[in-house]
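note to self — DONT lose this again. spent like an hour looking for the file last time. sequence + predicted structure for the chain T wanted, 118 res
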Amino acid sequence: MTTRKQTVIDDPTALVVDKVSEKRLAELIGTTAKALEHKRLSGIIPRGVWLKESGRIMYSLERYNTWAENQWASRLASKSEVTPSESVLLSTVSVEVNRRPISRPPRGSQPPVVSVLV
């Protein structure tokens, strides 16, 4: 009986795969493949993040992570640390509700004529 020597990979980055299918990326990020497809087709996820290879949609994990981080950073930058100021009109307008009853036709009045087209 011959013994086979197992290959040991010392470099952990050698096991990392950058290109994954749309279904696999959906599993990794916790969404559905249909949601990713919608974002891809509507242009939310740019073409550089995904590529069509042999009829299959493949995503680059590195590019997806970079794109997602940029989205996160741009949303945080758009929200200032200070509470957004309110409109001057909002602070000067009375917010009391004017409760008026719904106007109803007087009793005994003719109901409106309804015509049915055939």
